[in-house]
Amino acid sequence: MSDLSSRSIRNLFIGNKSSLLQYLTRKVGPNDAPDLLQETFVRALRHERLDIVADPPAFLKQIAINLTRDFARRRKTETNYIQFGDYVIEAPSEDAPPEERIEYERKSRLLRASVESLPPRCREVFKLHIYEDVSLQDVARRLQISDRMARKHLSLAFRTCRTALRQPSD
Fold this sequence. Notes:
mainly alpha
């Protein structure tokens, strides 16, 4: 980017911002599109020889395409791994031995304490998604945060719960 002036970078941004944002909004939705737009330009600016790129708008579009692919892969991976099912603790039957009921109570206390220890927004995302069965996209919309931020909050909540459940018995 040695010879590329800040004016031409500004013009490149202004000239392509709208079309890239429309493309990204179609691909990832209105909540995550602005983040990916910003990342598109950050990556372009990091390119060592942006001044010799033959077609800068096409270069920007290709970066945006790659980012949407990465985003889709990441979302699919998160969907596969971020599920509460691993943390559901079923209540023991009335016929269960006392040790099983005691362990259930211990794990329930640990989970409640870990959920209550979460930062307020993180706790809110977790409770809406898990206890009220609100989709993560609807949680993000309700709380006016990006889908990505809602997933980050949920991921933190799961890590906190997982850590709590690993605590040894007294």
